[in-house]
């Protein structure tokens, strides 16, 4: 189940384009995670992964720690109590510099992570290049 606690975006006002949504643990399909909205934005994922230093200001604030671990998942949070074997990195975010796409296989990162998905409100904007990933709320 996806938790829907809205957190206002940090860098720009408005925040009308979409939301970063933390999906269920081990679920790889951001299209399904974003089904409450219009869908997942491939362009937003690609643009955000090419500017990880900027996205850290948005997503990193809600993470207890940050790393660049890349399991082919894009942005994610280790949500399992056994993260790092002893729970010491639970709620830490992995912010790699590559975007694998909105849909990857389930069970990535040993099943311990939850994807952070760029969800949009309107399909007309899902692949639009000119809006900014800063115009997002974060949902955890």
Set out the fold topology.
Blueprint: E1 6-7, E2 18-22, H1 30-33, E3 39-40, H2 42-49, H3 52-59, E4 65-67, E5 76-78, E6 92-94, E7 113-120, E8 136-139
Parallel strand pairs: 2-8, 4-6
Antiparallel strand pairs: 1-8, 2-7, 3-7, 5-6, 5-7
Word description of this protein:
It is a single chain. By secondary structure, this protein is α+β, with helices and mostly antiparallel strands. The protein has helices spanning 30-33, 42-49, 52-59, and strands spanning 6-7, 18-22, 39-40, 65-67, 76-78, 92-94, 113-120, 136-139. Strands 1, 2, 3, 4, 5, 6, 7 and 8 form an 8-stranded mixed sheet that branches. Residues 1-16 and 128-135 have low confidence and may be disordered.
Features:
140 residues, 8 strands, 14% helix
Element-by-element helix/strand order = EEHEHHEEEEE
Q: Give the number of DSSP strands.
A: 8
Which structural class best describes the helix and strand composition?
A: alpha+beta
Kindly estimate the percentage of residues that lie in beta strands according to DSSP: 15-25%
Helix content: 10-25%
How many individual helices?
3
Roughly how many Å is the radius of gyration? 14 Å
- The backbone outline, from C-alpha atoms, is globular
Q: Cα distance, first to last residue? A: 11 Å
Mean pLDDT: 78
Main pleated-sheet profile = 8 strands, mixed
Low-confidence stretches: 1-16, 128-135
């Amino acid at each position: 189940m996806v938790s829907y606690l809205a957190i206002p975006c940090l860098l720009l006002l408005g925040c009308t384009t979409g939301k970063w949504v933390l999906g269920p643990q081990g679920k790889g399909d951001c299209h399904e995670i974003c089904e409450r909205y219009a869908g997942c934005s491939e362009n937003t994922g690609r643009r955000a992964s090419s500017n990880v230093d900027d996205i850290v200001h948005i997503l990193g604030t809600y993470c207890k720690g940050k790393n660049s671990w890349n399991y082919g998942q894009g942005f994610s949070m280790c949500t399992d109590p056994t993260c790092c074997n002893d729970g010491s990195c639970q709620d830490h975010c992995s912010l790699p510099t590559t975007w694998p796409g909105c849909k990857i296989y389930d069970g990535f990162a040993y099943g311990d992570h939850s994807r952070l998905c760029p969800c949009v409100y309107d399909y007309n904007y899902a692949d639009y290049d000119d809006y900014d990933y800063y115009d997002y709320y974060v949902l955890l």
